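[Discussion] Sanity-checking designs against the backbone

I'm trying to build intuition for which residues belong where. Below is a structure token string of 55 positions. I'd appreciate it if someone posts a full sequence so I can compare it with mine line by line.
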């Protein structure tokens, strides 16, 4: 998930450098959404991670 966020950020930066404002804005927004989802999933995984079974 974070990989895709990084790729959309790179696309947004390249589009911004080429003055394609619409594509850059959408790519950066998608990047931000994927980044937030990725961080939430990491936190959930860390909270509910593997625990030793109780006997």
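Best answer:
Here's mine. Compare freely.
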């Amino acid at each position: 998930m974070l990989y895709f966020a990084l790729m959309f950020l790179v696309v947004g930066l390249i589009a911004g450098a080429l003055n394609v404002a619409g594509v850059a804005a959408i790519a950066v927004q998608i990047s931000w959404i994927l980044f937030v989802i990725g961080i939430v999933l990491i936190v959930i995984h860390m909270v509910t991670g593997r625990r030793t079974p109780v006997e």
